[in-house]
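Need the bound structure for L6N33NVT, inputs here:
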Amino acid sequence: MAPKTPRTTTSAPAAPSGGVSRRGLLAALGSGAVGAGLVGAGVVAAEASARSSSGSSGAGGGSASVVPFHGEHQAGIATDVQANLHFAAFDVTATSRDELVSLLQDWTAAAVALTAGKEVGAGGATGGRPLAPPSDTGEAVDLHANRLTLTVGAGPSLFDDRFGLAAARPAALVDLPAFPADALVPERSDGDLCVQACADDPQVAVHAIRTLTRIAAGRAAVRWAQLGYGRAATVDPGAPTPRNLFGFKDGTANPAASDTATLDDQVWVQPSDEQGAAAWVAGGSYLVARRIRMHIETWDRTSLQEQEQVIGRTKGSGAPLGHAGEHDAFDARTLPASSHVRLAHPSMNGGAQMLRRGYNFTDGTDGLGHLDAGLFFLAYQRDVRKAFIPIQTALARQDALSEYLEHTASGVWAVFPGVPQGGYLGQQLLSV
Ligand SMILES: C=CC1=C(C)c2cc3[nH]c(cc4nc(cc5[nH]c(cc1n2)c(C)c5CCC(=O)O)C(CCC(=O)O)=C4C)c(C)c3C=C
Ligand SMILES: [Fe+2]
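Answer from helper R.:
Posting the output first, comments after.
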């Protein structure tokens, strides 16, 4: 049985490491977040209480389910892929740099509590004043941390003239070009900030995004969001590779989390990559998100042989065509000319790799009798100009898989470096 998480309510330290800052409180006061119960009477520092009261056991219970928030890099990138995703992109509505800083400080304090499996705000879900709305919405009580990670990045639009950040925009944070056959919905694309919440329980991930959205009131608003399930990638080659909605193993060739040399070379931004005011991004990464609708009804009418020719791997084992084992080495030039794996392979793209961390999604139907389902593609990389852009250019031009796909949403973000103890998300950027 997993150990019980104590129900003690602990005062968190003042922001940024554990509470809502005074400025955040004032912003909340001005925006109605107090009415939503995020701050209690006379309380500036938020309190975080442990999120378990019933002592329920299970996979998500105990400290083993906690992924450390602080570190050199943000968690949620080289972290073993959790089962569920709630991704949200935000428009920042703050009108000053100070307000933006206070938002990121308050998010940091909440993220520290949430990822530790604790309730947020004074009194948490049930310990506050009876006549005030609870600080924590409560749906994650008893669910533990469930390996929740929160990963935050800044989009190109944050670097306009609103916050004096134009000079700090990394050269590698380019706007993605339009690709042939893109069917992007602008309202479901881009965003000043993004938050990727991953957890082994869907309600924990949803609670986290809901909480950050409440805290942001008056300073940022959700622009678009996406739920995902059934991880469609892995960073652990020793674990069974999950499958996407076309039924193929997805993530086989991903870099392993333990392969730090490849991560340094391909995923983490290095100190030499950016100069001057943009040097803050070292230790971070670049995230490309694409909501890719998959025409599964058409795919399901396609023969097994054709499906395998399109992907370039066998459906059962995931082995490259002509090989026996999933992880067998192969020469991409021996695969069909327009197969997905051949075109996406590093040997065809100047050695470029990405760390893919996508999730399956199913968002009801399109009203025409087809499921609106697909892959929410998430890929972390050191430089989109060397990885996602050239690879997607080749895929859009030649990939046989494209016939079954429709890219409906897109975004690119510079993901902040990790947060040291006592620091806050994006501090490296906002203190330049
Ligand atoms: C621009 C990059 C990529 C997009 C967009 C993309 C979409 C996409 N992929 C699959 C299914 C599979 N992809 C696989 C491998 C693979 N895909 C990319 C890039 C993009 N995929 C890369 C770089 C690789 C690795 C190539 C290699 O090094 O061998 C595979 C094979 C298994 C694996 O290695 O993961 C599958 C299956 C879908 C369904 C999809 C869009 C919906
Ligand atoms: Fe792929």
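Comments: Residues 340, 344 surround fe (ii) ion (ligand 2) (CB under 6 Å). Residues 1-37, 39-48, 52-59 have pLDDT under 50 and may be disordered.
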